[in-house]
Amino acid sequence: MAQTQAQEYPEITITLNVNGKDYTVNVKPYERLIDVLRYKLGFLSVKEGCGRGECGSCAVIMDGKLVPSCLVLAVQARGKKIITLEGIAPPGKLHAIQKALLDTYAMQCGFCFPGVIMAAYYLLSKNRNPSEDEIRYALSGNLCRCGSYLRFIKAVKLAAEYIRKGQIYFDLKK
Ligand code: FES
Ligand code: FES
Question: Does the Cβ of 33 fall within 6 Å of ligand 1?
């Protein structure tokens, strides 16, 4: 059977630390981090919108930096510490940002939410009292097809308030 040139590249074994746990996985040299996280490791919060670094839906934190995982090769993430949405709160809990998004009724289709939450998480991990301009700037890389932008600003302000009061995690309502 004929093979494409790309299929002939040998796989490379890499280890990624995702949400505090090590995963060893075989990847092609051209495989993107987004595909490895979603399809090989099952972190389905990592969503593909544009696939070219413009929408922010695929954002993860890698070694302390917010990155679009569609623009990172899996091999570039070798040995790095990655945080996805699944890793921001313990099982069964909501992070303050998730709670604030619910409280402000920001949710529409929700497709952009993982990226928006990761961008807000990144901002609030550096600055617990951001100004509106700082919030707007921090979320400027996130496209929301449903146009929830103003509610996102309100939600991030509320999340910052929760965090300043020490309310980081909330129980999921049954
Ligand atoms: S899918 Fe990565 S930035 Fe849009
Ligand atoms: S809530 Fe639908 S894309 Fe943002």
Answer: no
The model's pLDDT over 122-167, given as tens digits with 9 standing for 90+, comes to: 999 999 999 999 999 999 999 999 999 999 999 999 999 999 999 9
135 lines ligand 1 (CB under 6 A): no
Domain boundaries, the chain: 6-87, 93-171
What is the C-alpha to C-alpha distance for residues 63 and 154, in angstroms, rounded to an integer?
28
Mutate to test the pocket of ligand 1, among 32, 47, 48 (most ligand atoms within 8 A of CB): 48
Is 114 near ligand 1, meaning CB less than 6 Å away? no
Q: Say what the pLDDT of residue 36 is.
A: 98
For residue 27, give every residue at least 6 positions away whose Cβ sits within 8 Å of its Cβ, in sequence order, or none. Answer: 11, 12, 14, 36, 40, 74, 75
Q: pLDDT tens digit string along 42-101?
A: 999 999 999 999 999 999 999 999 999 999 999 999 999 999 999 999 999 999 999 999
Q: In CATH, which of 3.10.20.30, 3.30.160.100, 1.10.443.10, 3.40.50.1820 is domain 6-87?
A: 3.10.20.30
What atom of ligand 2 comes closest to residue 147's alpha carbon? 4
The domain made up of 93-171 is a member of CATH 1.10.150.120: yes
CA distances from 160 to 81, 90, 98, 101 (A): 24, 19, 12, 12
- Answer whether 86 contacts ligand 1 (Cβ < 6 A): no
- Overall pTM > 0.85: yes
